[in-house]
């Protein structure tokens, strides 16, 4: 989401002291639209604490290898801690865990939280988390945000709605990398039945803003058929 916002908002957007804040503005505006339109009971924003975890590279040596030469835009790096601080200031849980990617946290939360759950992301690999209408993905595309449920997966790809993980593995490009664009953050939005205290174990909330900015130099989407539970 950081990257999408950074490239969508002109770099003429600056704070009173001249600090570039186009990604800050874009990220907050995007989340504000989701909150206004979807009216969630709770909002969490997940981050890549490790964009290319060692344990995943051990399993798949070529994992994201081609992306090691794709650094984060220098103008985005100082905006990351500002974004995270702003989110926390307005009550959004920023959730990350050392050694895991944002999608690992999303998958873990989706397996533990009461439905309905809406995952706001431009990463199609998160279609693997879809379950009927209980867990859907709010997928940004030309013309607006699409609600992607099992029926929509079946319509788009001519496969069973629960089979996206298998489809993604078989369709993976030969570079051993991603089919999606780069992103440094994800949002998972939880239905109104949930109780705030049940969904985020304290140890999952550990997030260093400085660490997030530092690791963002290689931040991006996860590459998996099935996400690994965090912790």
Helix and strand topology:
Elements: H1 2-8, H2 22-38, E1 42-47, H3 54-59, H4 79-89, E2 93-95, H5 102-112, E3 117-120, E4 135-141, E5 144-148, H6 150-157, H7 164-171, E6 185-190, H8 196-199, H9 209-215
Parallel strand pairs: 1-2, 3-4
Antiparallel strand pairs: 1-6, 3-6, 4-5
Helix pairs in contact: 1-2, 2-4, 4-9
Q: How many strand elements?
A: 6
Radius of gyration: 17 Å
Helix run count: 9
Beta-strand share of residues: 5-15%
Give the tally of structural domains. 1
Calculate the terminal CA-CA distance, rounded to whole Å: 24 Å
Structural class: alpha/beta
Helical proportion, percent range:
25-40%
Features of the shown structure:
231 residues; Rossmann fold; six-stranded mixed β-sheet; single chain; 13% strand; alpha/beta
Write up this protein:
With 231 residues, this protein is an alpha/beta fold. It has a single domain, classed as 5'-nuclease (Rossmann fold, 3-Layer(aba) Sandwich). The chain is 34% helix and 13% strand. It has 9 helices and 6 strands, in the order ααβααβαβββααβαα. It has helices at 2-8, 22-38, 54-59, 79-89, 102-112, 150-157, 164-171, 196-199, 209-215, and strands spanning 42-47, 93-95, 117-120, 135-141, 144-148, 185-190. It has a 6-stranded mixed β-sheet with strand order 2-1-6-3-4-5, sandwiched between helices. Strand 4 (135-141) and strand 5 (144-148) form a beta hairpin. The protein is globular and about 50 Å long. It starts with a helix and ends in a 16-residue tail after the last helix. Residues 173-229 have low confidence and may be disordered.
């Amino acid at each position: 989401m950081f990257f999408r916002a950074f490239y969508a908002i002109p770099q003429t957007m600056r704070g009173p002291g001249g600090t570039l804040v186009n990604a800050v503005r874009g990220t907050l505006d995007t989340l504000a639209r989701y909150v206004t339109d979807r009216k969630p009971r709770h909002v969490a924003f997940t981050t890549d604490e490790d964009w290319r975890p060692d344990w995943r590279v051990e399993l798949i040596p070529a994992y994201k290898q081609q992306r090691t030469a794709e650094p984060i835009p220098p103008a985005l790096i100082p905006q990351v801690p500002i974004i995270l601080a702003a989110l926390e200031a307005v009550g959004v849980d920023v959730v990350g865990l050392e050694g895991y990617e944002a999608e690992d946290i999303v998958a873990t939360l989706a397996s533990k939280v009461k439905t309905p759950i809406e995952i706001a992301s431009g990463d199609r690999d998160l279609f693997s988390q879809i379950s009927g209408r209980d867990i859907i993905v709010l997928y940004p595309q030309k013309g607006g945000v699409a609600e992607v449920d099992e029926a929509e997966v079946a319509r788009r790809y001519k496969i069973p709605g629960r089979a996206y993980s298998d489809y993604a593995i078989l369709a993976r490009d030969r570079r051993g990398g991603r089919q999606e664009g780069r992103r440094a953050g994800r949002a998972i939005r939880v239905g109104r039945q949930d109780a705030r205290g049940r969904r985020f174990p304290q140890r999952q909330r550990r997030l260093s803003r400085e660490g997030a900015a530092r690791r963002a130099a290689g931040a991006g989407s996860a590459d998996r058929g099935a996400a690994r539970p965090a912790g």
